[in-house]
Amino acid sequence: MAKTVAAPRQTARVVPLRKGTTLEMIRLCCPDAGQATLIAESFGLTILDSDGIRERHEKLIVETADGLSEGLGERAMQIHLQRIVGAYVGSAHGAGQFYSRAVTEARDLTAKAACDARDEDLDGPVGFDGAAQRKREFAADMALQSHALLMAAEGAVAAYEQVVGERWRPFERPVENPGRSIDRKAADLQMAALG
Q: Which keywords does UniProt give here (predicted)?
C-alpha cells in the first residue's frame, strides 16, 4: 500500500513591529493646558498660549507642505510629513517622560525634607533654596516645556490630517531578526560565499 506524504504546512510568519509613539501616549505624560496654567501660576512662571502654539505649528506644517507641493507627489508628501510629525511627537514624548521623572524626584525629595529627623535634606542658608525647592522648580519648568511640545505635536498632527486627508498614525517598523547581531549576519554571508 502506498503512503501519501503530506506536504509540510507552511506556518504563518509573525513579524514583530516596533510600536511608534502615539499622540494619546504623549497626552498621558505631558500636562494639559489647565495643569500647565496652574503650574505656571503656582511657580510664578509665564503662562503659555497653548492654542497659539498649536495653531502656529499647524500653520507651519501646512505652509511647508504647500511650498513642497510642486516638487513632491502625493505619496512622497505623505512620507515626508509622516517623518516630520513623528519627530514632533517623539520630541514631546521624550519631554513628557523627562517631566514625569522630574516630578517623581521632586516628590521624593519633598517627602524626605518633611521628615524633621533628617538634617541632610533641610533647606539651605537664608536666601538660598533647599534641594527640594530646586527640584520642584525644575519639575515646573519641565512641565511647561513638555506642554509646549505637546501643543506643537498636536498642531503637527492636525496639519498632517489637513494636508494628507487621513489621520496620522506612527510608523511601525518591522524588527529585523531580533537577537541576530550584525557579526552573525556577516558570518552567514561570508559562509554562503565560500559555498
A: Plasmid
